[in-house]
């Protein structure tokens, strides 16, 4: 099994612990990461873009001029796409961009993302993360102690002091372990996990 050093908030080594190879040290499959990011971003798309086709444009029930004798091409309605103000041909219509991915693919993609951070030595494990009160300054001091600027922080449960302390810091995001996803793991170059979050991820993915 892979081994990581566990630190406290002052970056003092507390202990070492084994982590699951199946979750944190598996083969990084880039095609799975690509599929999962596409899946997440597609699910976020609103899909509300729309234009009016010729049947949705008001008016156009009357023939604009007689069929013959004018010298012009025959026209049946002013709502046709070739008229100014007419309907749009082949325009966008509301649609759902989401597509299906198997549960095994999602699980394997997340393991690949976590393993990429571990293998690049950008994974930090903290014994616990807590503050007595909401403090952006205190949170920033912890990040500076570890030399982190852009980081995803994963905690093992609801912690209002931690979550609210980080909300005004740019390039920093706090997630609970159940909300960890491939897009956010890849978006932030550094990953910080509490020991409790490591246990939860191993329990869910191993």
Write up this protein.
This protein folds into two domains: 2-46 and 98-205, Ribosomal protein L4/L1 (Ribosomal Protein L4, Chain: A, 3-Layer(aba) Sandwich), CATH 3.40.1370.10; 52-91, no CATH class. Helix content is 34%, strand content 16%. It is built from seven helices and six strands, in the order ββαααβαβαβαβα. It has helices at residues 21-24, 30-44, 103-119, 136-146, 160-165, 182-187, 195-205; strands spanning 2-7, 13-19, 123-126, 151-155, 172-176, 190-194. It has a six-stranded mixed β-sheet. The protein is elongated and about 95 Å long. The model has no long low-confidence stretch (mean pLDDT 95).
The CATH class of the largest domain is identified as Alpha Beta
CATH-defined topology of the largest domain: Ribosomal Protein L4, Chain: A
Regions with little confidence, pLDDT below 50 for 5+ residues: none
Number of structurally distinct domains: 2
CATH architecture label of the largest domain: 3-Layer(aba) Sandwich
Write a concise keyword list for the protein shown above:
2 domains, alpha/beta, Ribosomal Protein L4, Chain: A, 6-stranded mixed beta sheet
Short description:
34% of the residues lie in helices and 16% in strands. It is built from 7 helices and 6 strands; from the N terminus they run ββαααβαβαβαβα.
Write the layout of secondary structure elements.
Layout: E1 2-7, E2 13-19, H1 21-24, H2 30-44, H3 103-119, E3 123-126, H4 136-146, E4 151-155, H5 160-165, E5 172-176, H6 182-187, E6 190-194, H7 195-205
Parallel strand pairs: 1-3, 3-6, 4-5, 4-6
Antiparallel strand pairs: 1-2
